[in-house]
Design brief:
Blueprint lengths: L11 H10 L15 H4 L1 E5 L4 H13 L3 E5 L3 H4 L11 E4 L8 E4 L1 H11 L10 H28 L1 H10 L10 H17 L1 H4 L6 H21 L10 H16 L1 H10 L1 H10 L20 H27 L4 E5 L2 E5 L3 H15 L3 H11 L12
Length: 380
């Protein structure tokens, strides 16, 4: 558990959470005197059709942190504190000492919060340099594989028909079929209108589709070496990739067919990661950064090939107040609307890199040398 002598270094919402967490065994939530078990449990609010909900739910299961899943938009969700950002999923933290519950948005800050407050079965490696690599892979999953997911779903007619037919029911299960058809059309129009923000368009489509196939080829080889991206236990990067892969590999027909051709293993891996709460892990299960598998470098080269130039180009466009990101990715043009949130993601990565001790930065630099990832940290 968190050392009580250091509670003054934790912000107030975390402090309330830690007080509730105090107790025995695996970070189990214990209610304060007079509270119920229901009061003490985390509330994860989301929908199963959301890749980010799947990411966070699977991470909570792996970490054995008790939670209640609440469907977004339900009566139960509406009775909870509202989220600070209009996003799903969000996590409602129990109050302590009579304090009200509070809500957190955004999966990466949520996972970081849990790293600070629940020490058992952490997602982040204890090695600072390897932890930076995990952050990088998490962001690649969240911010690049999401482009693949959105592109296939809303660019290919079979995928659009399937997604728009069932997704409206995720929050309104009792709609009539007529209401469902109206919602289907409205939902598809709204999502397709957002393609420009995500970056899917006729110019970028070849880059996205080639990157999805390469990722599967690299993943197929890498997971033959070890069961997870950074060794024999999953990190946040695994769950970020898993969240998008639940749609890309299992749900949506076009990318799923490609996955079945290139890496049937990816289907099995994605299905398995839904619940790995029974996996027993130790600190020695992480890879040794001094002798990483060659396939990890292949994965990082793919990150450097597509994700890095976009993130740098997007950050430049946001900083200049430009109305368009225009850069080159994998020797091909890339054009899309700037995405302010992804510029923030790059700042977070650079801040984490800058916070490393010089010796750890050198180890990160040595691993990333020649991968194309170096520009991500060039201004850190």
């Amino acid at each position: 558990m968190v050392d009580g002598a250091r509670l003054d270094h934790i912000c107030e919402p975390e402090l309330r959470f830690v007080r509730v967490l105090r107790g025995e065994g695996m970070g189990m939530l214990r209610p304060d005197e007079g509270a119920t078990e229901d009061d003490a449990a985390l509330k994860l609010v989301g929908v199963g059709a959301s890749p980010y909900t799947r990411k966070l739910r699977a991470a909570l299961r792996y970490r054995r942190v008790p939670y209640h899943f609440v469907v977004a938009g339900s009566v139960e969700a509406n009775a909870l504190p509202d989220r600070p950002l209009p996003l799903v999923p969000y996590l409602v933290l129990p109050g302590a000492d009579g304090a009200p519950a509070t809500a957190m948005s955004d999966t990466t800050p949520i996972l970081d919060h849990l790293e600070r407050t629940v020490p058992e079965r952490r997602l982040r490696p204890s090695d600072p340099a390897l932890r930076l690599i995990d952050l990088l892979l998490e962001d690649y999953g969240d911010e690049w594989l999401s482009k693949c997911m959105f592109h296939y779903r809303w660019s290919y007619a079979p995928d659009t028909r399937k997604a728009s037919a069932y997704l409206p029911y995720a929050r309104a299960m009792q709609m009539t079929r007529e209401e469902g058809r109206d919602a289907e059309n409205a939902f598809a129009r709204r999502q397709i209108s957002r393609i420009g923000v995500v970056g899917s368009n006729p110019i970028t489509a070849p880059v996205i589709e080639e990157s999805w196939r390469r990722y599967l080829e690299i993943f197929e080889a890498h997971i033959q070496n070890q069961p997870y991206l950074l060794g024999h236990r999953p990190g946040a990067g695994d769950f970020a990739c898993y969240g998008q892969m639940t749609m890309l590999v299992i749900t949506d027909p076009t990318p799923a067919q490609i996955a079945l051709e290139v890496s049937p293993r990816a289907y099995a891996w994605t299905e398995r990661l839904e619940d790995v709460s029974g996996l027993e892990v130790s600190e020695g299960d992480w890879i040794d950064l001094a002798s990483p598998p060659s396939t990890l470098r292949d994965l990082l080269c793919e990150v450097g090939r597509v994700y890095a130039p976009f993130m740098v180009g997007n950050a430049v466009a946001v900083a200049r107040g430009a109305d368009q990101v225009a850069c080159e990715i994998d020797g091909k043009p890339w054009v899309q609307e700037p995405f302010v949130y992804q510029a923030k993601c790059l700042r977070w990565l650079r801040a984490a890199y800058s916070a490393l001790e010089p010796s750890d930065r050198r180890r990160v630099d040595q691993l990333l040398e020649g991968t194309g990832c170096e520009p991500l940290f060039a201004q850190a």
